[in-house]
Amino acid sequence: MDLRKLKTLIDLVSESGISELEVNEGEDRVRIVNAGSSAPAGQVVYAAAPAPAQAAPAVNAAPVATAPATEEAPAESGFVARSPMVGTFYRAPNPESPNFVNVGDTVKVGQTLCIIEAMKLLNEIESEKDGVIKQILCENGQGVEFDQPLFIIA
């Protein structure tokens, strides 16, 4: 597998938001892991039929420059409920149902705040703190990233 293909795969993983990609091409195997913003954008392990006593060489990809997130500063202060995963944010269990919570609602620990759909699975996100919803930072149907602020609870 040539270097251009590897670069293209690394760029695709970085831009798509997927966490891992593995490609097998003949006897070549490439695995790219997106480690997030605290580490390089991807790690490439490239093995071309190594000898039995020889380990596959590992090559760390250079960090890919990404545009800084233009996140608005929350207008309210308090506990920030964050997304535990990448997915699609939903305020209600289905379009006909009322929202789980609205601004001004009082919530208890363990109460469902929203749903995040990830890989066709619906994951209920529960409140980690008691309090009042001061601000909802995402729109219904919006894509969210890992650790993105969703709610402010005071």
Brief sketch in words of this structure:
The protein is mostly beta strands and 154 residues long. 9% of the residues lie in helices and 37% in strands.
Task: Describe this protein's structure.
The protein has 154 residues and is mainly β. The protein folds into two domains: 3-60, no CATH class; 79-153, OB fold (Dihydrolipoamide Acetyltransferase, E2P) (Beta Barrel). It is 9% helix and 37% strand. The chain has one helix spanning 3-16, and strands at 20-25, 28-33, 43-48, 58-60, 79-82, 87-90, 106-107, 112-118, 121-126, 131-136, 143-144, 149-153. It has a four-stranded antiparallel β-sheet, covered by helices on one side. The longest helix has 14 residues, at 3-16. The model is unreliable at 37-42, 49-56 and 64-71 (pLDDT under 50).
CATH architecture of the largest domain: Beta Barrel
- CATH class category label of the largest domain: Mainly Beta
Structurally, how many domains make up the residues?
Answer: 2
Low-confidence runs of at least 5 consecutive residues = 37-42, 49-56, 64-71
- Sketch the topology as an H/E string, one letter per element: HEEEEEEEEEEEE
Amino-to-carboxy terminus distance: 53 Å
Secondary structural class? mainly beta
Shape: elongated
The major sheet is characterized as: 4 strands, antiparallel
Instruction: Give the strand order of the largest sheet, numbering strands 1, 2, ... along the chain.
Output: 1-2-3-4
Task: Enumerate how many helices there are, as a single number.
Answer: 1
Helical percentage: under 10%
Q: Would you give the CATH topology of the largest domain? A: OB fold (Dihydrolipoamide Acetyltransferase, E2P)
- Overall pLDDT score: 79
What would you report as the Rg, rounded to the nearest angstrom?
Answer: 20 Å
Number of strands: 12
CATH superfamily name of the largest domain? Answer: RNA polymerase II/Efflux pump adaptor protein, barrel-sandwich hybrid domain
Strand content: 35-45%
